[in-house]
Structures are given as C-alpha cells and as structure tokens.
C-alpha cells in the first residue's frame, strides 16, 4: 500500500509525555532528534481585488527556514505552481516550529508545536504527524496511542488550521467528485470495498475544517453526504467486511451523524424555506421572530457538532475506518471469517452487477406504483433511489461511462422530485413546539402553504422522472455472475 501522512491534533502538554511513551520507545529505530526553526506563511502581493496568486490557486506556502513548502487547502487545487516564477513573496504570518522526530521501524513520528502570528493575532497548535508510513500501520499506531492520549481530528496538515484561524484562507467544502479516486490494487470485491471506503473517508476529512469554522453550510452538507456514502458503502460490502468491526463502526457513524444532521436540517429549513418565504412575503407576522429562534438553535447545533468532531470517539472511529480501508487484499482477508473469503475474492465487476441488480429491483418494485404511494412510501422510494445512486457512483469505474452517467442523472432527478416531501417532514419536526397549529399561527400557516406548493410542483414531475429512469436498460447485465 502507498505511504501516507496522518496528522492529528494533541494537547501541547502531551508532546513530551508522548516522546517517552513505552510503545514508541520499543518502536524506535534510531535516535530521536529535536529541531527549532523560524517559519512563515507567504504569498504574492494582493491584487486590486484582494486576491493572492497561491491562495487563489488553492495552495498555502509555508517557509520553514528558507525552504518553501506548498500545501493544497482545497480538493480541486490548481496544478502545483512554480514558486520561482511568481516573483517576490510577501510574509503574511511568521513564527516558530519545534519538532521532535522519532525514527520508527516504519516511517517517522513527528511531534510538533507550531506558533504563528499575524499582527496581534496569534495561533498555536500541537500535532502528531505519522509520516511516510503505510496508512494501515499509521492508523493502528494512532489507535494504540489513543488509549493514553486524546488526539483530535484535523483533516488537514498542521499549518492549514493556523492559516484559517488567522483569517488568511477560507476552507473550501469538497464534493465527492472533486476527490481523487483511489485505485484498487486488484480486481477483487474486497479491494474495491477498501478503495471505495478510502474515497468516502477522504471526502469526510476534506470537509472537517470547513465544518469546524462553521461559516459555510455547504461544508456541513458535504460532510453529511460523505457519512451517507460511508453508510451506504458499509451496507453494500457488509457480506465481505469483518463482522466484528461493522456493528461498532455503524454505531459510531450514527452517533456522529446525529449532530451533523441536526445542523444540516436547520440550514436547509432556514436557507431554502424560511429566508425565501420572508423575501416573498415580508409582511407575514412571526417570521422574523422564528428566524431569531432558529438562528439560536443553529448556533447551538454548530457547537454540539464541533464538540462531537473534537471528541476521542470521533477520532477513534475515523482511525478504525482508516485502518480497515487501508488494508491490502491479503491483510483484509486476515480480518474476515474464512467463510467470507470466496465472496471477498470474486471479481469486483460481478459483485457490483449483483448489487446494482438487487437495488434496482427493490426500487422498481416500489416505484412502479408511484402514482398511488402514500407519503411514507414515497419517502421509502426516495431512500431506495438514493441507495441505488450511491452504488451506481461507487462502481462507475467498472462500466462504460455513458450508461453510468445516464443512470446517475436519472436517479438524481428522481431524488429531486421527492425532496420536497422530506423537507416538509423535517420542517414540521423542527417547528414542533415553536409555533402553534397552522390554523392558529400566521407564520405556521404560511410555511405549511409554502411546503404544499413545493410538494405539488415537484410531485408533478414524478411521473416523467420515473418514466425516464425505468426506460434505462441495466448496463451491468452482462457482468452478472452465471447461475
């Protein structure tokens, strides 16, 4: 497996204790060394619009001593720029780094403390950096250290949170399509499972800093999508994943999704219902007060989400998933029951075709009655469409591009037509206990009417959307296992 760098936050007081940890002492493969250097964040001078060349391209430049080091801070960063061709660079923030390097039998462990100042603003961070290690080994070692210490998730290299804290860059939310896909090492189903889990985890990690900052609701949305994709991947591959791991991983995923979902539901209601309604009907009594109440709830939900992400439980969950996703085919087999080996080693394309067939059948069985379905049944239809869409996206690399794209587009359209139903259900739950019944409260009545209009408009498109999906032929049919 490729080498990786894993970075976790740590309390500054724990750095020296970590250096003397008995586990690390036994893994030492040479003498530890300590270095102290001046560091600076640099970029070109701002143009008339306030933009800087490196930041505009999605890169952060850290000078350690005199050596520049470029770090991408967004998933779709431009190609690595030529620093020498940029001309003079301006110092944006400067400070110091203290680093203890522990050479281990596999890679290095860096214990670092960074301090940066920008005028009167100062930011500091202490980190554990597992460098040039196989990802599985890094995650396993980090999990062992979690028993005595409480590292937290960063989702980024150490200078990036400092630059964000100093207001030098703004973290950009990352969509799944912007994350480079991990190529399976073989064509087996278990290799595909690990690669897909790695991609889902990469999207989750790429949105951590945007969610922690809390200024952009899109980061919350993309992290929630990452968790839904992870849940779907664990469900799809459950027959060939370690049974002893699955229950705990799914339980922790649900735990983390609770505060994330609460924050996201508030974002959707405020931004897609309340604010447009206020703009369209500014005279409705009670909407401004409702905005104030929901803004306070959103702030509380953000604080709860930040606490969850900073907790040891979230860190250990991510490390366990990383350990599983980073396993080679041979390593993964050692985690499985012998009875799972045959299914795990089957061709990925055959596993994918069987999965897609099963999910399409479940969707069609319910969807063929779309014109007579109750509201709860329409909600189940939306969930089945979403599950098939995720499976379609996961396995797209195994099939021809055009039919996969057409299927994904049809499923996305089908989901969108059913989205108003879910929004209304979530909105009713949010408003419970805040406003009175629709007939007694002007704001509640206006919101109910808004939802009804949206539902009517979107559900009018359900028939055409279903017809477009049902007309598509199963592009995976030829790859189905024989017999």
Strand and helix map with partners:
Layout lengths: L2 E7 L4 H6 L2 H6 L5 E11 L9 H4 L2 E6 L2 E6 L17 E14 L4 E11 L2 E14 H11 L6 E2 L5 H7 L23 H18 L1 H6 L3 H20 L6 H38 L6 H23 L2 H14 L3 H7 L5 H5 L2 H20 L7 H20 L6 H31 L10 H18 L2 H9 L13
Antiparallel strand pairs: 1-7, 1-8, 2-3, 2-5, 3-4, 5-6, 6-7
Q: How many β-strand runs?
A: 8
In percent terms, what proportion of residues is strand? 5-15%
Write down the Rg.
25 Å
Low-confidence stretches: none
Number of helices: 18
Write the H/E string, N to C. EHHEHEEEEEHEHHHHHHHHHHHHHH
Distance between the termini: 35 Å
Compute the average pLDDT. Answer: 91
**Main β-sheet, spatial strand arrangement:** 4-3-2-5-6-7-1-8
Helical amount: 40-55%
What shape does the CA trace take? globular
Give me the secondary-structure category.
Answer: alpha+beta
Largest sheet: 8 strands, antiparallel
Structural commentary:
The chain is α+β, with helices and mostly antiparallel strands. It has 18 helices and 8 strands. The chain has an 8-stranded antiparallel β-sheet with strand order 4-3-2-5-6-7-1-8. α9 (243-280) packs across α16, α15 (375-394) packs antiparallel against α16 (401-431) and α16 (401-431) packs antiparallel against α18 (462-470). The longest helix has 38 residues, at 243-280. It is globular, with a radius of gyration of 25 Å.
Keywords for this structure?
single chain, 483 residues, alpha+beta, eight-stranded antiparallel β-sheet, 18 helices
């Amino acid at each position: 497996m490729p080498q990786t760098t894993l970075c976790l936050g740590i309390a500054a007081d724990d750095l020296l204790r970590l250096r003397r940890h008995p586990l690390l002492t036994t893994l030492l493969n040479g003498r530890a060394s300590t270095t102290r250097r001046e560091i600076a964040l640099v970029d070109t001078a701002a143009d008339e619009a306030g933009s800087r060349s490196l930041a505009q391209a999605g890169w952060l430049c850290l000078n350690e001593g005199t050596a520049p080091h470029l770090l991408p801070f967004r998933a779709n960063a431009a190609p690595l720029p030529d620093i020498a061709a940029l001309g003079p660079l301006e110092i944006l923030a400067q400070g110091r780094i203290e680093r203890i390097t522990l050479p281990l039998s596999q890679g290095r462990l860096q214990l670092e403390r960074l301090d940066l100042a920008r005028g009167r603003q100062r930011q500091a961070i202490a980190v554990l950096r597992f460098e040039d290690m196989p990802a599985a080994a890094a995650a396993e070692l980090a999990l062992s250290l979690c028993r005595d210490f409480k590292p937290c998730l960063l989702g980024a290299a150490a200078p990036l949170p400092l630059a964000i804290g100093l207001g030098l860059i703004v973290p950009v939310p990352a969509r799944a399509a912007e994350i480079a896909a991990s190529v399976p090492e073989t064509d087996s189903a278990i290799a595909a499972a690990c690669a897909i889990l790695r991609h889902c985890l990469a999207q989750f990690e790429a949105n951590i800093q945007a969610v922690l900052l809390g200024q952009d609701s899109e980061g919350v949305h993309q992290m929630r999508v990452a968790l839904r994709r992870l849940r779907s991947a664990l469900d799809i591959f459950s027959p060939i994943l370690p049974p002893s791991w699955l229950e705990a991983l799914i339980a922790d995923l649900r735990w983390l999704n609770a505060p994330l979902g609460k924050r996201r539901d508030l974002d959707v209601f405020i931004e897609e219902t309340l604010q447009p309604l206020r703009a369209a009907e500014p005279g409705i009594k009670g909407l401004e007060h409702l905005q104030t109440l929901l803004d306070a709830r959103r702030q509380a939900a953000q604080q709860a989400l930040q606490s969850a992400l900073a907790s040891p439980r979230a860190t250990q969950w991510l490390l366990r998933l990383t350990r599983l996703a980073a396993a080679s085919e041979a390593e993964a087999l050692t985690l499985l029951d012998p009875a799972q080996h045959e299914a795990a080693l089957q061709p990925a394309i055959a596993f994918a075709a069987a999965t897609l067939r099963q999910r399409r059948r479940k969707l069609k069985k319910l969807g063929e009655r779309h014109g007579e379905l109750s509201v709860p049944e329409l909600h189940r239809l939306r969930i089945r469409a979403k599950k098939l869409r995720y499976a379609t996206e996961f396995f797209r690399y195994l099939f021809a591009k055009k039919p996969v794209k057409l299927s994904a587009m049809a499923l996305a359209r089908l989901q969108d037509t059913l989205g108003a139903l879910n929004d209304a259900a979530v909105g009713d739950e949010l408003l419970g206990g805040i406003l009175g019944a629709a007939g007694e409260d002007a704001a509640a009545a206006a919101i109910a009417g808004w939802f009804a209009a949206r539902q009517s408009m979107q559900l009018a498109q359900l028939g055409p959307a279903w017809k477009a999906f049902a007309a598509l032929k199963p592009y995976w049919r030829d790859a189905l296992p024989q017999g």
